[in-house]
Every structure is written in C-alpha cells, then in structure tokens.
User: What shape does this take?
Amino acid sequence: MPHKTFLAFIWPSLLAMVLFIAVPIVSVAYQSLFIEHEQILITSENCGPFGCTSSVSVDRAAMARLAEEQPAGRYNGLGTYTNSSHLATDEIAGIVATSENFNEIRNRIMNLPFYKALVFTLTYTFVVTPLVIALGFAIAVVVNAIPQMLKGPVIFFSLLPMLVTPLVGSLVLFWMIDSRGIIGAGLQSLFGDPDLSLKASPTLTWITLFTYGVWHSAPFAFVVFYAGLQTVPTDTLESAMVDGASRWERVRFVVMPYLLPLASFIALMQLMDNFRIFEPIIGFSAAASATSLSYLIYNDLRAGNSPLFGSAAATSMLTIVGVVILLLPVLRRNWREFNRKI
Amino acid sequence: MSKPSHRKPLPLALLSTGFVIVWLIVAAFPFLWTMWGSFKVEGDFFSRANWADAITGPVTMRQTGSPFTMAGYEGAWIAQEFWRAVANTAIVTVSVVVISLTLGTLGGYALARSGFRYTFWLLMAALVFRAMPHVTLVSGYLLPFFELNIWGVLPTTIIVLVAINQPFTLWMLHSFFLSIPKDLDESAMVDGCTRFQAFRLAVIPVMWPGVVTTGLFSFLLAYNDFTVTSMLLTQENTTMVPKINSFLGSTQEEGKVMYAVAAVVSAIVPLFALILFFQRQIVSGLTAGAVKG
Assistant: This one.
C-alpha cells in the first residue's frame, strides 16, 4: 500500500492518538517542571480609635492576574521530582546517614509517600500476575473436562468478575467483607475473634486487594488458556500416552509447553493492567494502608479546591518511566521478531 | 472419549468437579448475593445480629411490611437522580463505540495491509500507549481543558475515551484484518474499485464478526471507565460509575448505603445481559490477540 493511501486511511486514528495521548504526555512533562504560584499576601492596616491592627490576607486580584499570565505556575525545574512527596533525595540521604541498620532504613523509606505507593504497586503487580496465570490455568484444565452442555453456563458465570466494572466489583466484595457482611461475619466466627476486621491492618488490606486482583483477572487467563486447550494436538497427547506418560506428565510435558506462548501473552496484559491498579483502592477505601502510583496522581488532582498539577505531573512522569521499563523486554522481543520477518 | 484409558479415576473426578463448583461460587455468588440484598433495608443487608437476616429479611418485614422493598432503587433512581447518570452513560458509550469503530477499522485496515517498517513502530507506540495508566493522561488534560473552557461536557469526554481506546482497537482490528486474505481486496481493485471502495464493499462485509467483537470491548471500556469520567465531567454530566462513587461519600446516614447497593446492581444488570447475548464474541475477542501469537 503506497504511503499516501496509508496516510489517508490512518490519519483520523493517528490524529486522535497524537492529540489525546502523545500531546498530553508532553504537557505532563512540561507541567512537572512548574509548581503552584506562591500566595501573594497583602498587609492592610486598620486604624481605629484603639490603635492600629494589621491583618494579612491573600491578594485575590493579583493571584488571578498571575494565573492569567502563567497558567502553569512558576518554574521549579526538577525541584518537584526531588521533593519529599516524590523521589525525596534529601530525606533518603538523611535517613541513610542517621539510621543504624538496613531494616531501619527500609522502614523509614517505606513511610515516604512515593516509595510506599511504588512498593505496593510493584508488589501487587508481581504477586497478582503469577497467581492469575496459575489459577486461570487450573480452571481451564478442569472446565475443559466437564460435560459439553455445562461448559456454556460455567463460562458465563466465570466471565462476570472480569467484565464487571472494577469499582463496582470491588464495592460488591467490600460490602461482603464488612464486619456486618456475610464474609466478614463468617471469618469472625471461623477464627472466633469478634473484633476481626479485614480493614484494620495494612497486611490484611493488602491481602484483600491481592485477592480482589486475582478474582478480577483469573477469568481472563482462564478464557485464553481454555481456547488454547481446544487446539492442543491430540496426536502428540496420544503418543505421550503410548509412551506411558501419566495424566500429570501429559499436562506437564505436553500441554504446558504448548500453552507457554499464551502464558507470556497473559503476563504481558496483566503486567500492564496491574501496574495501573487504582479503582480497587477507592472501592475498598484502602488508601490509608495501600496507595498506588495512580492513586497518588488522582489524589493530587483531587486536592481541595486547587489541584496540585505540578505534583501530579511529576508522579505521572515517574509512572510513565516505570511503564516503559516494564515493557522494554517485550518491545525488544517484538523488534527482533519483526526484523526476522523482513 | 469413551475409551477406558481416557476415563478419570474417581478421586480425581471428584476433585476437579469440586474445584469447578468452588470456582463458580467464588465467581458468581457475590453478584447474586448483592442483587438479592439490594431489595432489603440496611438493617438486613448489613446485619449486626445474624448474617442470615440478609436472606430472610426480618427488619425489612418490620419496616416496610413485606420481605422485599424497592426503597433503595427509588432513592437512587428518583431522589438522587441516578437516571440522569444512566442517560449520560448511554450517550457516552454509544458515541464512543461508533466513533472508535469508524476510526479503528480505517486505521487497522491500513496497518494490516501496509508492509512498511513504520507500521511496526506505530503498533509498538500503540502498545506503549495502551499501557499508560489513564490517570497520567488525565493529569495532562485538565489544565489545557480548563484553559480552552471545554472541561466538564460530554463531547470532550467522548473524544478522550475514543482516543484512549484507539491503541487497543487498532491492535484488535489489525489482527482481524490480517486474517482476511489480501487477494480479496486486490481482486476488487482489479475489477476497478478504488482502495476505499474495496475496503468498504469487499472487506468490511466479511469483517463484521471482528467489528462486533471489537465494538463489545470498546463498549466495556467506556462503560467501566472511572478515571476519565470522574475527572472530566461536572456533577450534572456525570456517568454511572462516578455517580456510584459519589453515593459513597454520603453513606453515613441510615439507608443511604442501600442507594449505592441499588445503583451498583443497576450497573451490573446490563453487563449480565451483554455476556448472555455476546458470550461467544467476548471469548473470541479475548483470544484473538493471543492465538495469533
């Protein structure tokens, strides 16, 4: 297809992506170099019969004029990146200098908001992704063995956790694990502890969010593996059987290697989706014990009556760097494959 | 499959049947439970006394005189104007699906038929764009949108959702177009069609399954979106998911939490219907990217 025709077909789609994905990234990068204007204060003196009092107030007119002139705020260079709510370079230097052992350093760094969010995001991504693949594979294997007429309904119900809106799905679970809900009350009587609450401790909140993540994404892995199982070559399975392979050995040495490319596809999708975990934190009201990078940005944009654009933009840039690092191996592999094809 | 060597030993059969049943309960029970509970009052759904109250509903019986009540739905839909959010969601999702499919089929077709090196770079850029957390993009929109005075209205949100949807739509449609032989459009062009006529008259008619599947996923993305709609829309223009979230802020009052429960169930029911009718397409869509490799 000549370049001109190609362009004629693709320009609307390209324009939309450039305007609303590429340009915003540039805009975020630009915004991250600026911070909010300092408040312009004016001191006014009120003199009355009992002497003069001076009061300090914000000069709204001057602030509005300033915002008109420089909507992005004042230039701050890389200052936002290194301040205490982002990379916190000074704080870390201080912590390293004053702490006695490695554990203390780790604990104190974990209290900095950016690192707290980063650690949760990465833990979530790398705990949930393998569990999703394992559970999805197990479900696919057992569902593949049930009678044909039952498969449709089973797949129908299996799809629900994945397709339901993440916020709605997490709310449904959140209400059930409430200490007055069925799961919360059930756990209390199971452990004989009437004060047990899944919302109370950070560890339990993390486990709850991980459980939600696996519940939400396992159907995706299940459906992909299930479709893959339909195409496993039967003659290879039969020859393995003739060679005396047991049921488990057939799964381990024939089915699993055959489905390996699918597992890497699921892993890629899951890494991308889990890295941006956000809605469950709102649905489970978990922000006190677990925040993610996306949640930090949302929180900055929601801050009071004036959004912290500079801070949100700096976190966004750091998140984008994270996404690119995460995708680098995939991009390199695709590049090699593409070159081989040509 | 009736050969004896294929038959499972009994313990294994029991174990795998048990596993399927447990999974089904885990997957479906929360939704059924919440649907049932949405017709109760708060005292039953969040029962301090006994969890079984949510099933039988003694407090609901005492307060309203029948074991089922529509109070949550009335409060949410009428008093809190949830219907307005539903109408907005309908406008947003339909527009997003129509526009993204139009742009996506054109673009996906071009990507599938052009062999030049830049198609690879475009597809890789789309992959990176797809991985972007939406909220990072939203933080780039807000300030320009305030400046241009286009913040808070439905058309802006629709365009933004279409754009965010494009990387995924392009990938999916591109792989569907690859499965259609090139000879089809080339023979149409030999017969005197222009490239666009070949696309419209020869390729699109056999592409319908792919278009429907991609449309379903565009619908889900727009319907399920919380990040974009909650940040880019005013209170009056808000869609269902941010509206549900706003109910949660006001749940301190007795009974208000049942508005949220009723709204959540109202948001789930259309998805139930969607899966019921389009299960086959959803499954084929999920695997389209995978099976190709």
User: Anything to note?
Assistant: The two ends of chain B are 29 Å apart (CA to CA). Confidence is low (pLDDT under 50) at residues 1-5 of chain B. Residues 82-292 of chain B form a domain with the MetI-like fold fold (CATH 1.10.3720.10). Chain B touches chain A through 100 residues (CB under 8 Å).
